[in-house]
Design brief:
This protein is an all-alpha fold and 346 residues long. The protein has one domain. It is 48% helix and 3% strand. The chain is built from eleven helices and four strands. It has a two-stranded antiparallel ribbon with strand order 1-2. A two-stranded antiparallel sheet has the order 3-4. A hairpin with a 7-residue loop joins strand 3 and strand 4. The relative contact order is 0.17. About 20% of the residues have low confidence.
């Protein structure tokens, strides 16, 4: 009985830590680079898209009722019988009439193509945040966690581990651990070119780049990783983003992106073949699932290493942002939503 309780506790711990492994690193990602545009704050709509259709109204000749009429006007030979010469005066601009978007009864129904690229903007619900009270509290918790625990540990780690080794570890995680979800989501969105690039990068970096510690695919062949995830896939097929959401130990989300994040976790082959968090009958794995204590220790160690290594590489990235930003929570929320809307459109 004690053995079962111990196994259950270990299983729960490894699942939780593995889910938040990318999330704790995402605490530092909560301060993205802010992009400026001419669109309203929080909107991804281009100003040109906001301009209504303009139809000029027919120009009318203005009449001056105060102009005196000459008594001999209209008589033959009269000087005033001829119309006065035209004077080149600037014409008044005709009034503008805004065309209403009224549906036409004779217009054919628009064909719906489920594979067409879906547009996503924030105009319909800018910074939709009905849970702002909860989100703000979680944002402050994550910020203090990073300030008082993660960042100090990362600074000590940075003094011991050479920068070149840190980058190699980051490349290994990025090229291998997160490869599966990116590849599958390129396929799900029918982005076969992106899927081909992702697969090519994986093979090149693992064969030539020493198991992914180096990135020759990027530096030699200029193959950039297509950034795709399940949240983007859901958005590409028309699933709305839903409310903004902040959870402890995790980066910002929309409700759609949070479910996508969980699905990405389930797509990770490490959980089945290398360090089996999930048990699947007849699936090979490097460590037998019955040795759950071993996999728990390795998963915890991998998660902590990933978090600390990432933060160490980004110690100075967000320095001064808090001091320069009046409302940090709103700024991070706005930047995240704009970034995700842009990723969906692309």
């Amino acid at each position: 009985m004690q053995r079962r309780v111990k196994d259950s506790f270990a299983y729960t711990a490894v699942v939780f830590v593995f889910i938040v492994s990318a999330g704790c690193a995402g605490v530092s990602e909560s301060l993205p680079v802010f992009e400026t545009s001419l669109a309203p704050s929080g909107s991804a709509v281009h100003p040109a898209d906001l301009t209504p259709d303009i139809i000029p109204a027919p120009a009318t000749q203005p009449t001056d009722h105060n102009t005196p009429i000459h008594p001999n006007a209209g008589e033959p030979g009269s000087v005033e019988s001829a119309p006065p010469p035209a004077i080149d005066a600037p014409e008044a601009s005709p009034p503008l009439v805004v065309a209403a978007d009224a549906p036409s009864k004779d217009a054919p129904d628009e064909f719906y193509d489920p594979f067409a690229k879906q547009e996503e903007t924030l105009a319909a619900g800018e910074d939709y945040d009905p849970w702002e009270g909860f989100n703000s509290a979680m944002f402050e918790f994550n910020r203090k966690l990073d300030k008082y625990i993660i960042k100090p540990v990362a600074k000590a780690y940075d003094k011991v581990v050479p920068n070149a080794l840190q980058k190699g570890i980051s490349n290994f995680y990025y090229n291998n651990i997160h490869f599966g979800p990116r590849l599958l989501n390129n396929v799900f969105q029918l982005k076969f070119k992106g899927a081909g690039i992702e697969l090519s990068r994986f093979l090149i970096n693992n064969v030539i780049g020493l198991a992914g510690f180096f990135d020759p695919a990027k530096h030699w062949l200029e193959l950039e990783t297509p950034q795709e995830d399940t949240g983007q896939t859901l958005g590409a097929y028309g699933v709305p983003p839903g409310p903004y959401l902040v959870l402890p130990l995790l980066p910002p989300f929309t409700l759609r992106d949070f479910f996508g994040y969980l699905l990405d976790f389930g797509m990770n082959p490490v959980n089945y073949f290398l360090l089996p968090t999930f048990e699947v009958d007849d699936w090979p794995s490097a460590i037998a699932h019955k040795n759950r204590d071993t996999t728990t220790i390795l998963q915890l160690g991998r998660a902590v290493e990933d978090i600390v290594n990432y933060r160490s590489l980004n110690l100075e990235t967000f320095e001064g942002v808090e001091e320069a930003t009046v409302d940090l929570y709103s700024a991070v929320r706005n930047a995240y939503l704009q970034k995700r809307a842009k990723a969906i459109r692309e």
